[in-house]
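This week, think about what follows.
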Amino acid sequence: MIFSTKAPLMARTATVALCLACATLALAAGTTALAASVIHFQPESLPALKGQLGHHEVHALTFHPATGTGHIHVSLNDGRHMTVPYATAEQAQLVALAGKDGTTVAIAAAKPKAVKAPVHHKLRYVAAGILVVVIVVIAAVLLVDRRRKMGEAGGDQATENALVPQPPGDPT
């Protein structure tokens, strides 16, 4: 009977261990799948690409034009991926060559770069100047108020002594 009371505890422990093992395997499989989905493009020359197009080895081409020279992402039928630099003037010829072969062609649209707004340091200096002026004004108001209060307190004693008549012969 002692074994039967420990059986639920052992079953829970085994269940937790099994869940942890499954979670670890799932995490490892997800990491491997993520790493496998990253495409690494190997450099290749333009004449080699033309030869591969002639032999029907190319699955898809993606042109990335730029000013002057661009690059082509090439997907081969054997699963390899290549990147080929080209002059943008040759793009029409390469598209026609790929069209004869029946290769899928795509031309990527260049994303315009966002123009950063200029940093206005003048605004920072104006804000700092206003802050300094406010601090000086507050300090001046506190100083004037303090002197006024000290003057009133000191002036009250002097006026009280002056208004109270001193009896003759009193040395105070």
Remarks:
- The chain has a mean pLDDT of 78.
- The chain has four helices and five strands.
- The two ends are 107 Å apart (CA to CA).
- The longest helix spans residues 121-163.
